[in-house]
Structure to design on (274 residues):
């Protein structure tokens, strides 16, 4: 089944607080070794080519806008199920509705230096089966095609606080996130960076998906002071994911970054942020 692709020049956003993306990654295709890697395709003065999956959501949207403004990024390719509604000379937008089959994206994903994967669904917003499909299967399939087309690419993955790689958690999102993490780490990419944010503060006003999200947004000013390592601004998280994907971590430990680590990365890269 070949998904229809639409090429335009635009840009967009990603899903919100406690964004829990899910997908699987077993036996990724190791073919296409003759294709040019991201390093082979690097742009002028070391600029990078970045692909963002899930740019119509909250975190992905911030990642997209930040990447477009970043001088270290030569080209941004946004791939998502929805349009993003932004026009920029550095941007190529592709609408791909079926992430269960990403084979049609092979050419688009060729020559990429890094990927930021923010595609996801809210826990409770979809059935358990669909949650696993989105969290695990979509992630695995996208990574399979990306690795085949750009085996040297770095991969930043939006996981979630409490992700359980052992698979013993009673919480489905934790098991599925852990399963996706395990698959990515075994996929063969030279660098995989896993981000496990706690509560993701939306920053901009929006319609919250549930009462718990409305409550968390209301108490955020106090919550941030009392439990600073249990919250992260969506824009800070997005910037950290992009910067780590295109620049690496230097001496910072990885590949898993808990909320405390993400805050430290954001502060070190952008001292003006809280």
């Amino acid at each position: 089944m070949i998904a229809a692709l639409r090429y335009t020049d635009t840009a967009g956003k990603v899903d919100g607080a406690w964004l829990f993306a899910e997908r699987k990654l077993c036996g990724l295709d190791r073919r296409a070794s003759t294709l040019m890697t991201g390093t082979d395709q690097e742009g002028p003065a070391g600029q990078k080519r970045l692909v963002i999956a899930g740019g119509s959501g909250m975190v992905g949207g911030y990642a997209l806008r930040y990447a477009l403004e970043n001088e270290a990024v030569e080209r941004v390719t946004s791939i998502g199920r929805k349009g993003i509604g932004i026009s920029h000379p550095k941007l190529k937008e592709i609408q791909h509705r079926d992430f269960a089959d990403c084979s049609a994206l092979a050419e688009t994903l060729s020559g990429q230096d890094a990927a930021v994967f923010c595609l996801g669904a809210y826990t409770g917003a979809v059935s358990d089966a669909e949650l696993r499909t989105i969290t695990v299967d979509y992630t695995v399939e996208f990574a399979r095609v990306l690795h085949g087309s750009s085996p040297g690419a770095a991969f930043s993955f939006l996981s979630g606080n409490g992700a359980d790689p052992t698979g013993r958690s009673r919480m489905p999102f934790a098991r599925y996130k852990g399963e996706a993490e395990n698959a990515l780490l075994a996929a063969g990419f030279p660098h995989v960076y896993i981000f496990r944010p706690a509560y993701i503060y939306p920053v901009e006003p929006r319609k919250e998906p549930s009462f718990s999200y409305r409550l968390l947004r209301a108490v955020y000013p106090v919550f941030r002071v009392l439990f600073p390592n249990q919250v992260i601004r969506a824009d800070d998280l997005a910037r950290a994911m992009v910067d780590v994907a295109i620049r690496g971590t230097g001496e910072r430990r990885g590949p898993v970054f808990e909320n405390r680590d993400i805050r430290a990365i954001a502060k070190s890269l952008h001292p003006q942020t809280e």
